[in-house]
Amino acid sequence: MGPFILFSTREHDGAAADEVRGVLAASGLSGDRLRVIRLEQGPLGPIEDLGLEDCPGIILGGSPFNASDHPSGKSAVQQRCEADLSGLLDVLVALDFPFLGACYGVGTLGLHQGGTIDTRFGEPVGTSRIRLTDQGLADPLLAGLPEEFDAFVGHKEAVSVLPDSAVLLAGSAPCPVQMFRIKNNLYATQFHPELDPQGLAQRILIYRDAGYFPPREAERLSERALASHVEWPALVLRNFVQRYGTGS
């Protein structure tokens, strides 16, 4: 069995590298068990060349891109990444292939499946109280998590209308769709299972001018992130790896 694949769309090298660090730490994977593909650096190419027959699962990281942005405001890189991901999801959904998308994954998978993605349920950078649904409590990817837990969030867009094919697994008071499943093996979370306090603090400083908060608030928010105690979301990634990566 080959490595898991992490798709990244982060143009900032520091953010991309820390995302890899976070995924490895949260999942328990060793470096040789994770192949990283930075879509923003070049076209995906033929999907048959990915070697899906040897890949136990695909992870899509977060992104500064917003799926719901008007096409006229999207860069050529964003449009290419979105086209590549849409074509990839055509294949993955048809195969019911193991997939876990974090934050950007909600918009990408949700839009692909016919949901509505807009800015109605955006959340400020920080922690959010997540609550599992009955279906979430029974889902193997959420095994071992409490019914309620804190997770790191920070997003301008979210799912406002869930796709008809989706099973809602988790929500929160400010954002009703925090996690959903398509078929049996495709998942998306609005919260970040890969983030720890150090990772969030770094991203706050990196994206201080990206419109998530007033730039003057960056240092205060970074300090607050470092003081946060968030432990449960990482178990989602660990469960994903343990469920699909036999022998990992």
TrEMBL record:
Annotated source species: Paeniglutamicibacter gangotriensis Lz1y
Name of this chain's protein: GMP synthase
Gene field: guaA_2
GO CC terms: cytosol
NCBIfam families from the UniProt entry: PRK07567.1
Domain of life assignment: Bacteria
This enzyme's EC code(s): 6.3.5.2
Record key words, sorted: Ligase
GO molecular-function term, one example from the UniProt record: GMP synthase (glutamine-hydrolyzing) activity
Residues covered by the Glutamine amidotransferase domain: 52-200
UniProt cross-references to InterPro entries, sorted A to Z: ChyE-like, Class_I_gatase-like, GATASE
Keyword Acyltransferase in annotation: no
Pfam annotation, one family: GATase
